[in-house]
Every structure is written in C-alpha cells, then in structure tokens.
User: Fold this.
Amino acid sequence: MQRNLTGKVLEDFKNDRDWQCAFYEAEEGQYGPAYNLGRGPIEDVVKVIACDAGENDTSEWIAVVHLKDGRYAVMAAGCDYTGWDCQASGTMEYHSALGLATTDLTPEQAERLGFDHDAFRLRKIDYGIKELEEERKEIVKKQEELIRSLEWTKNCTAKFEIDLSWESAIKRSYTYKLHVMGDNIPTTSFNSLLVINGVTATIQESLQFSHDSDMGESAHFFTNSLAVFIELLKRAKFKKIEYDEDLLQVFTAVANYA
Assistant:
C-alpha cells in the first residue's frame, strides 16, 4: 500500500505496466497498453491519494487518484493468471470531491488502502443528508411557487372563517381563514409563508398555507392582515366560497373599522 504519490514516484507508478493495464481496463473495458497504445488513461493522474497493487487471479489493483480535470476517481481492476490481454475487468468511478470518492470504497478496499471505512460511510451518509436537504428545498420552492400562483384554486371550494385571536381595550386581532377543499391541492411538508405581491405586511401578518392531512384534499390559508386576506380573495379563483351571514357581518364591520 502506498500513499500520496507525486513527482518521480508518481512517474514510476504511471510507467508501471500493471497499473497502466489496470487503468485502461477500468476505463475502456479492454486491454490496450500491452499492445503499445501508450500509457492510456493513467496519463490523466496528477496525484495518487492511495493505491495497493494486486496480484493475477488473486486480488485487484485499487487506487484513489486525483485527475487533471480536478475530479477524483476510484479505480479497481484485476485479471486472471494469463494477464491483462485475456480475462480482465475493472471499474472507474468519478467524483467531484475526495470525500465522495472515498465513500465508494468497500470495507476490504478501505482496509487495504489504510482508510477507516466506518468514517467514510458516516461521511457518505452526511453527504446524502445534505443532498436530500437541497433536493427538499428545491421541491418546497417549486411547490410554494405553485401555491402562490393560486391558479389551482379554480378547482376548489373554500369556506370563510374568522377567529378573534385576542382583544384588549386598545386593539383587537383577528385571524382570517379560508378552509380549502378539493382535488390536487398543492402540498408542502410544513407551513409556507406566502407574501402576496403588492401588499406590505409584517412576518406575523403574512399569508400562510398549511395542510389538514397528508392526502392533500384539505388545507387552510390564514393571516392576521385584513389587507392580505382581501388581496387573496381578489386573486383566488375558487368555484365557490361558503360563509354564514353572521360571520360576513363581522368581517364587514372589521373591514369598515380598518
């Protein structure tokens, strides 16, 4: 096993016939250097992070390397007792970062190269979590854009609700709600903060959207801002909005008072 090969030691590595054949087999799926086709894919290696030579019909040649184009690669290839120009096979896996490359190693490969396999597995899990978080953010963004468009409301009905959140001698606060029912309501995994363009509101007064169940058949818009709620009513395209007369009188009184 060798580590961090550069300079003359790297050149010796790249001139070794077995390593040349191993890289060629892994990249091209066929033998080549044995027939004077040059050093082949191994020429792109600028540094060997770690490598361990194999043995015909016994173990693979394995290496983690840094390439000219900035990528990292894990190379593994082997041949039978007759050599590289008969029964041979190999793989080459490319990655943008060394941490990702080393997570591709099997426990046996990691041990041969002197790496802590469990640490690399943990790192791979961490990378996976980050990738899922980024994917989740992108999906949530698309869903919120869809929700904000309000185009989907034309397939839904809504019921108007109003709650007196708190009251004092100086100020009253109301929560205005639309209980939405219908098919194919856009979904998001948590309450979404939806700012209606053209209407100024504080964070507490912004329009929010949440689901009543995972089935996506029922949801709520709610806000403490009368201006935001009225703007929602103007822009939405509900087939029908239900309300009771007493509630409408309260809403009208509040609107006139505001």
Remarks:
- Residues 200-204 have pLDDT under 50 and may be disordered.
- The radius of gyration is 32 Å.
